[in-house]
Amino acid sequence: MSSLAILAVAFVVLTVMGIPLFVSVGLTTALALFLIDIPYTLMAQTGYGSLTPFPLLTIPLFVLAGRLMEVGGMANRMIAIATNLVGAYRGSMGLVTVFACMLFAALSGSGPATTAAIGSVTVPAMRRDGYDVPFAAAITASAGALGSLIPPSNLMIIYGLVSETSIPRLFLAGLIPGVMVTVLLMITTYIIARRRNYGGDGDPFTWGPFLKAAWDGKWAIGAPVLILGGIYGGAFTPTEAAGVAVFYALFVGLFVYRELTVKKVIDALRFTALLTGILILLTPTLAFGQLTAFYDVPSAVQAGITSITTNVFLVMLLIGLFYIFIGTFMESLAQIVLFTAVFLPLVTSLGVDPVMFGVFTVITCEIGFLTPPLGANLTVAARISGISIERISVAVLPFILAYVIGMVILIFFPDLTLFLPDWFYGEAK
Question: Residue 70 in contact with residue 101, Cβ under 8 Å?
């Protein structure tokens, strides 16, 4: 049996046994080092180096800022703005959920965090409006995944670090696909709600209530304007923008809306620590990623796939199917770190832009948020709604289809991702 086969079997066995993923990857990496007689100090050096990049600080800061904005009153005001826009349409509360998640995604950078922030308000509201609870939870889980596509995005930050791709370019590239997927999710929600006769009892749209809600929520709307405007205006880097976002959230929550308390701030810090603890995956997965070069895995994958087809669209579809399958049982962060080094050389050799591949990767990870048994967003939605993940998993299938359609559109029309970064920064050389 070859070394690669031994490593594959070891990783699968450890994962099936239920051992935490970072331990499974770490033990597999240690075995790989042993098989090719490389000192174990490689893991220690990589582990230290993996947690030192300054941009990595962006992730806990954006998570903290998003949580402070949620408990400080910004999420409720965004929901009020969305309600005044689409409250009279069929499936109104479902449409509000999707639209509010899109707005809050520009604050949190995290899919599960967006699901928790918006779903804690809208799922009970949909239940009161007579929505089937699994359907309500499915809307929240699927729309919450937008937190990883619309900038700022934690997964894009990780991809940018691993692939050495410009993070501001990635952020800009996610805007048009993010809006496109939002529209697809809203269409899906509307079709299902119309068939089941949900919602549509709100007041028709008029400028007065909408402008009042927009004025009340001006500080909430100002957050993404400040964050993204500061980045692209050259005022600060993404990491500095995350720090500014935390300060802004504290200021608005404490002195403007006055809904933040010391207890809420401490709870937000605890939530941030728990959610960003997953960064422990970086140490073993980056070491494992480096080992792929020693085993010449990228070349083997490139030779294997190109022996089947060299059509760039088919190659991207194959990679997308693989990512969706892997996402059912692997954390998105580990998925990006492990497989970017494997697939990025292949797709770039076929003419795919690394920025476009980054957005494509994040969309496949969003589908992973919605597929059991791991499905992070499904877990959050299950806790909010009080029903089982199994029931939500069935209800979420139409929304997964919407994401798949979005992924296929990006494969065939890559300029949707590249238009804004190329327009703003010029074409990458």
Answer: no
Domain of 280 in residue numbering reads as 39-425
Angle between helices 74-86 and 111-128 (to 10 degrees): 50
At residue 253, the pLDDT reads 92
* Nearest-10 crossing angle of helices 74-86, 207-216: 170
Are 56 and 237 in contact, with CB atoms under 8 Å apart? no
Here the tokens at position 120 are: 């804690």
* CA separation for the pair 378, 72 (Å, rounded): 25
CA 173/CA 417 separation, integer angstroms: 5
- In contact, 244 and 152? CB cutoff 8 Å: no
**Separation between Cα atoms, residue 75 and residue 225, nearest integer Å:** 15
The DSSP result for 101-161, as a single string, is: HHHHHHHH--HHHHHHHHHHHHHHHHHHTT--HHHHHHHHHHHHGGGGTSSS-HHHHHHHH
pLDDT at site 90: 64
Question: What secondary structure does DSSP assign to 148-205, as a single string?
Answer: GTSSS-HHHHHHHHHHT--HHHHHHHTHHHHHHHHHHHHHHHHHHHHHHT-B--SPPP
Tokens of 116: 């928790």
- Does residue 264 lie within any of the structural domains? yes
Q: Is 329 left (phi over 0), alpha (psi -120 to 50) or beta?
A: alpha
pLDDT averaged per 10 residues, the chain (length 429):
76 80 83 81 76 79 86 84 69 85 82 85 86 92 90 90 91 94 94 82 66 84 86 85 91 92 92 79 78 74 84 93 86 85 90 95 90 82 88 93 95 92 76
Residue 1 maps to a domain: no
Enter the pTM of the model: 0.85
Residue 90 domain-assigned? yes
Six-digit token pair at 340?
């970017």
Burial of 233 per CB tally in 10 Å (0-12, 13-18, 19+): exposed
Give the phi and the psi of residue 52 in degrees, each rounded to 5. Answer: -95, -20
Give me the pLDDT at residue 3, please: 74
How many structural domains are present in the chain?
1
Decide if 20 is inside a domain: no
